[in-house]
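re: ur question from yesterday

yeah so i grabbed the chain u mentioned. its 281 aa long if i counted rite. heres the sequnce exactly as i have it in my notes:
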Amino acid sequence: MVWPAPAKLNLFLHITGRRADGYHLLQTVFQFLEYGDDIRFAIREDGAIRRHGDVPSVPEAADLMVRAAQLLKAETGCPLGADIGITKRLPMGGGLGGGSSDAATVLVALNQHWGLGLDTDRLAALGLALGADVPVFVRGVAAWAEGVGEVLTPVAPAEPWYLVVKPPVEVPTGAVFGAPELTRDCLPITIPDFLSGRGSNVCEPVVRRHFPEVGKVLDWLGQHGDARLTGTGSCVFVAFEARASAEAVMTGLPATWQGFVARGTNRSPLLAALDRACAAG
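ran it thru and got these structure tokens back, copy pasting raw so excuse formatting
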């Protein structure tokens, strides 16, 4: 069975402060896309965890998929292992949550395949040990997020079609969060504020300054709607009511940019896969 690891968008991103340990306090909304990586599993009796598939520049031992599987084994004492294969579509450094989504899918899928029976709260807690974005992928519902991104409240924004564009650059999260000019004192807003149209991505000015090619994408897509940066990555998105409209704009992309069109969804494709797996026994 193939398990999806969907992309996410940050529909806005405000930073409201900074903890003593250096982590930033934020407000954001996560929404999933019907697009992402595909992950396959073959269960091993020898307990080994092996990755298969090309993941450029990520050593196997450092891969969040492998770390997620190893963490699940360590926490439960499960004697089984897994061969994990991936078809990678989500770009590195794009702000689409690819690594976190892959880790969440491994936790959810192996919990099912290994027959562990851990509930969502336990899996989300394990995910948090791997990264602040992993719990939202484990829970699988669009969410208003606070804290460092782990305090989640379900929300239901509109589910438009998105054109997502990535220029040929990667934006390291550390470069953005470490920038002295980054706005870190946004006044908190509320969910009704967001749903009424408030909110922006305060990382955009920093990324524009240090990665001009991303600024070019923001300007180009901005001719067709409210173009926004997702997270702290290099991907930019704009919403459309109709798929055909998004695809028409995509035909004009400069040759050096990559893009795709996908529907936004408030229920992750991972949950649909879990439903199918449970029904199949």
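noticed a couple things. The beta strands are 2-18, 24-44, 49-52, 81-87, 143-146, 151-154, 161-166, 228-229, 236-240, 258-265. also Residues 1-281 form a domain with the Ribosomal Protein S5; domain 2 fold (CATH 3.30.230.10).
anyway ttyl
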